[in-house]
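Protocol step 4 of 5: obtain the predicted structure for the target chain.
Materials: sequence only (see below). No template structures provided, no constraints applied. The aim of this step is simply to have a reference model before the mutagenesis design in step 5. Sequence pasted as it appears in the construct record:
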Amino acid sequence: MNGDPVDVILAQWQRERPGLDVSPMGIMGRMGRLAKYLERSIQETVLDFGLNGGEFDVLATLRRSGQPYQLSPTELFNSLMVSSGTMTHRIDRLEQAGLVKRMDDPSDRRGTLIQLTSKGFNTIEQAVDAHVANGHRLLMVLDEAEREVLAQLLSKLLISFEE
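Step 4 output (structure tokens):
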């Protein structure tokens, strides 16, 4: 396997600071670069459905919540780790596109629920299929065992941050 651009950076640091263990830079640098490539690919995939990545996330969260495919704005922004202002903007755009609708919450007179419309349901069904196919394409360089190990390691790291 040939080296990647991060190897060049690590070699430069090794030359300049031979006593410094820069191995974390290799992992973090590669994860950061990969995140940018993955984000770009996801954005390109969902753009085919008239969505940006954030809007895709909202629709996907509603879809995977199960019938009746509705959540409160608070449940949405907590699930997606964004601010309430960001969530309001996303919901406004999705509502204007006819993909979601706001409804009164029958269990809380002051509350609102966000629900997928049939157009939103059909859009996210197609977008998720394309997203999953894109993921398989992006990860095909790894065999199944490698993907499982990578998934386990990334999960372990993520859990350490979210505890």
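Step 4 remarks: Residues 1-47 form one domain. The beta strands are 70-71, 100-105, 108-116.
Proceed to step 5.
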